[in-house]
Amino acid sequence: MCGTDGNNGVSANSVANGAFRPSNPYQPVGDFLSNVGRFKIIESTLREGEQFANAYFTTETKIEIAKKLDAFGVDYIELTSPAASEQSRLDCEAICKLGLKAKILTHVRCDMRDARMAVETGVDGLDVVIGTSSFLREHSHGKDMVYIKKTAIEVIEFVKSKGLEVRFSSEDSFRSDLVDLLSLYQAVDKVGVHRVGIADTVGCASPRQVYDLVRTLRGVVSCDIETHFHNDTGCSIANAYCALEAGATHIDTSVLGIGERNGITPLGGLMARMVVTSPEYVKSKYRLDMIKEIEDLVAEAVEVNTPFNNPITGFCAFTHKAGIHAKAILNNPSTYEILNPADFGLTRYVHFASRLTGWNAVKTRVAQLGLVMTDDQVKAVTAKIKALADVRPIAIDDADSIIRSFHMDLGDRAPVKQNRDAKQNGEAEQIKQEAKQNGERVPVEVEIGA
Ligand SMILES: [Zn+2]
């Protein structure tokens, strides 16, 4: 599919998923490789996530998670190997029977016995993996590169003969010998593997290393490139992003990033990154408003809390506190927000119960409470709130009480009062609904956020 923009003659390259990326003679080489506007997600909560220390998923929970991920729009759902246990095999079959839109994969060792069992479960494809670093070759499976290459080709040809998709990945790719790795990937590309995988199994890679390796690999194979990043050094989202910039096509994620040790690239965090880079692609493909319910479901299943600083859903992700920030946010949310909470079905909150508050935030709160004051009166009550907040931490109710009693004391000096009370008559909810209907960039959060 090719197209030409009639206005400026800029051509658009043919890309997967019907998305276009503009090109012109002055773009740097990197932009031609970049897939930031046309990537696919391989969601591995039900494989990598099952390796999380707290994870124990019943069949019902697995099905519930799979259905939600499917509704969200992930391209693939990866499941634990059926060779892991009898229940794992049964769960794999049960999820395959759901008839989801997402393709179902299972993750198996590069071993004919595992591959034979996996192809009988009804999956759409196999993610085949073997360790290639000298550490793993010496201390884990004990096989050399000649054996690995021979077995890989045998397994790939077998899976393809069954009409299924197959990915071949090394494990611990960033501590594997580059020449070994490239010649192995070249060999599996030649026999028609659908994807090769790069896995930062130990979480050691930096974004620049990722960019270099993926870009080098992009020049060696013609198949898709899947990437898998552990978060031991906090780089999992940045590494995924750099991999896409360098030409990777698929990113592995898990909900809340759960996985072995401290996990992998989180689905929500990756969405936060990518919606900033490629808003149209991300918003048209993924149900961003489902992130919170999916995270809540998984958090409950594995008995953890969503981290306070989690992208998008951390409790303070859209809370603005300092007076200067609050004033600007109330005028135009883009001043201090790169993400729009409305895109995720969420609302922002301007914190007004603190010593850092400013009168603009308090003015908004006064209006939410259905009260009317002049600016000078709002400034006076703001001074009272700040004075108390200097003495002790205050709650929203404390600040509201100060506002209400100040307003009552105004008596005749108060401007004409609107006969409504946000808390009592459900006004807050009504304003919230109106705000949602008005679409994005509604300047004032009305949720109390107790
Ligand atoms: Zn992993």
UniProtKB/TrEMBL annotation:
Domain Pyruvate carboxyltransferase: 39-292
Region span, Disordered: 413-450
Pathway linked to the protein: Amino-acid biosynthesis; L-lysine biosynthesis via AAA pathway; L-alpha-aminoadipate from 2-oxoglutarate: step 1/5
Molecular function as annotated in GO: homocitrate synthase activity; metal ion binding
Reactions catalysed: acetyl-CoA + 2-oxoglutarate + H2O = (2R)-homocitrate + CoA + H(+)
InterPro entries recorded: 2-IPM_HCS-like, AIPM/Hcit_synth_CS, Aldolase_TIM, DRE_TIM_HCS_fun_bact, Homocitrate_synth, LeuA/HCS_post-cat, PYR_CT
GO biological process: lysine biosynthetic process via aminoadipic acid
CDD domains, A to Z: DRE_TIM_HCS (cd07948)
Compositionally biased region (Basic and acidic residues): 413-444
GO cellular component: mitochondrion
Alphabetical UniProt keywords: Amino-acid biosynthesis, Lysine biosynthesis, Magnesium, Manganese, Metal-binding, Transferase
EC number: 2.3.3.14
Cofactor: Mn(2+); Mg(2+)
Protein family membership: Belongs to the alpha-IPM synthase/homocitrate synthase family. Homocitrate synthase LYS20/LYS21 subfamily.
Protein name per its UniProtKB record: homocitrate synthase
